[in-house]
Specification:
Number of strands: 16
Number of helices: 13
Helix content: 25-40%
Radius of gyration: 27 Å
Structural class: alpha+beta
Strand content: 15-25%
Strand order of the largest sheet: 6-10-11-16-15-14-13-12
Shape: globular
Length: about 450
RNA sequence: UCCUCGAUAGCUCAAUCGGUAGAGCAUGCGGCUGUUAACCGCAGGGUUGCAGGUUCGAGUCCUGCUCGAGGAGCCA
């Protein structure tokens, strides 16, 4: 069957011609004389109005339709006399694929909360809000690849199942095929994972970074963009057990190149979404967050402030603010500190660099002062930390001594350490949670509303 | 994991001091109109999250549990 996308029809310069569409009925308004349908095929926010006059052969069929039904419509694209749309379809033919019983169909026309829609997550993409969010998400994901591809970065598909714990970042989900009721055991009673599928303990990845560093050491500039898993018992609006992460890695580059890349990257994604998803963005701004578009435009227009951790601590100490967690050199910045820096002091994005070594991961390059590392976090107004990155330690001895200090087993990381043994080089990269980016782009306040089927503690429905 | 708040019709919410559980939307039926959150009329719809307790009487007070939301921590 031939089918035209509604967004393409609405983009035409003028009305006229026979058209065929198919989609789902959003609303119906009918009378004895005429039926008005709004049909949406997912290609845009507004859908298109279908008009079925009484003398049309399909009039009685049209009267049967209710919200949620699926139909194909053929007719003529005509100028709409009504005020709210440019074109509409004067129907001559109509095929019903499936009705939707209005007594039980959960998506009603008015006032449905986001919490309720999470309980019917399989149907929520049929709402205006989730249609808009997931079109924006798609555009952002495409822009991620375009950004890196245009700059010659090579996309590396790092493994989902891993045996190494990168930096101890969060709790791990175990991957096993052993019978949980009666696993094979060793003499001392511990589970014998030598009998397991991989012959050892394995987990879902918490980060593709260590793997992508390997490819950086051969292909130059690389990135990963894929799913990541954390078994943390985090119940917040910004955490998921399964989320997508973007992790670029650049060879022969330092922390300043890293900051430049991250700033350019964020502005690129924002600009593409504002340009290509204007209708959806306007809807989200109107419905949820009037400051959304100005805030994004502000990011585009600003140069990210760049300060060291030590300077950040001085600013916070001088602020005179009675923070719940008093500021002290050596502690990690709390949410309230990050918000003060970018929302009140700098009034815009801030990049904080050179954090104390003790609060950062083992692989970050140590500074000459012996106290700090070449880390960089980008803080955004409203969301806090959106990017975390660093220059990596490329000196074998320093890396090994740091790992020993943290009690890490060198044998586990022999392949990672080989990068420093053979042709080591300065390199850097950063990590970015894709859903947090989509949250910032759409203004959605809960991260569970920017991923199709959220996985959170006690919830893996659908 | 911690703190706070919440759970009443399909959905969103009311219910005064502890005293007969209501409305809007949705649904059904009817009407009307180039309508667009359509409109007008009528009707049906409830074990007030679960389990106990106090009381003549509990949606309301008490205890425990479950689930949800917001904040914090952890982090991306």
């Amino acid at each position: 069957m031939k089918r035209q996308r509604i967004s393409d029809l609405l983009a035409r310069p003028e009305a006229g011609g026979d058209v065929d569409i198919a989609g789902w009925v959003r609303t119906k308004r009918d009378s004895k004389e005429i039926v008005f349908l709004n049909v949406n095929d997912g290609s845009n926010l507004a859908g298109i109005q279908v008009v079925v006059p009484r003398d049309a052969a399909c009039f009685e069929d049209a009267r049967k339709l209710t919200t949620g039904a699926s139909v194909a419509v053929s007719g003529r694209l005509v100028d709409s006399p009504g005020g709210k749309q440019r074109f509409e379809i004067l129907a001559s033919g109509l095929r019903i694929y499936g009705l939707a019983d209005p007594a039980t169909y959960p998506i009603q026309k008015k006032k449905i909360t986001l919490e309720y829609l999470r309980e019917v997550a399989h149907l929520r993409p049929r709402t205006n809000t989730f249609g808009a969010v997931f079109r924006v998400r798609n555009t952002a994901a495409d822009a991620v690849h375009r950004f890196f591809q245009e700059r010659g970065f090579v996309w590396i598909h790092t493994p989902i199942i891993t045996s190494a714990d990168a930096e101890g970042a969060g709790e791990l989900f175990r991957v096993t095929v052993l019978d949980p009721a009666s696993p094979p055991r060793m003499d001392d009673g511990r589970v014998d994972y030598r009998e397991d599928f991989f012959g050892r303990e394995t987990y879902l990845t918490v980060s593709g970074q260590l793997a992508v560093e390997n490819f950086c050491s051969a292909l130059g500039n690389v990135y990963t963009f894929g799913p990541t898993f954390r078994a943390e018992n985090s119940n917040t609006t910004r955490h998921l057990a399964e989320f997508w992460m973007i992790e670029p890695e650049m060879a022969f580059a330092d922390i300043h190149d890293d900051m430049d890349l991250a700033e350019e990257f964020l502005k690129y994604i924002i600009a593409v979404v504002l340009r290509d998803r204007a209708e959806d963005m306007s809807f989200l701004a109107e419905r949820y967050d009037p400051e959304l578009l100005p805030r994004l435009e502000h990011i585009l227009a600003s140069t990210f402030a760049r300060i060291t951790y030590t300077e950040a601590v001085e600013i916070l100490e001088r602020s005179g603010r009675p923070f719940q967690f008093p500021v002290r050199w050596g502690m990690d910045l709390q949410t309230e500190h990050e918000r003060y820096l970018c929302e009140e002091h700098f009034m815009g994005p801030v990049i904080v660099t050179d954090y104390p070594m003790e609060i950062k991961a083992f692989y970050m390059k140590q500074n000459d002062d012996g106290k700090t590392v070449r880390a960089m976090d980008i803080l955004f107004p409203g969301v806090g930390e959106i990017v975390g990155g660093s220059q990596r330690e490329d000196d074998l001895e320093k890396l090994v001594s740091r790992m020993r200090a943290l009690g890490m087993r060198e044998e586990t990381y022999w392949w990672y350490l080989d990068l420093r043994r053979y042709g080591t080089h300065p390199h850097c990269g950063f990590g970015l949670g894709f859903e947090r980016l989509v949250q910032f782009l759409t203004g959605m306040s809960n991260i569970r509303d920017v991923i199709p089927f959220p996985r959170t503690p006690k919830n893996a429905d659908f």
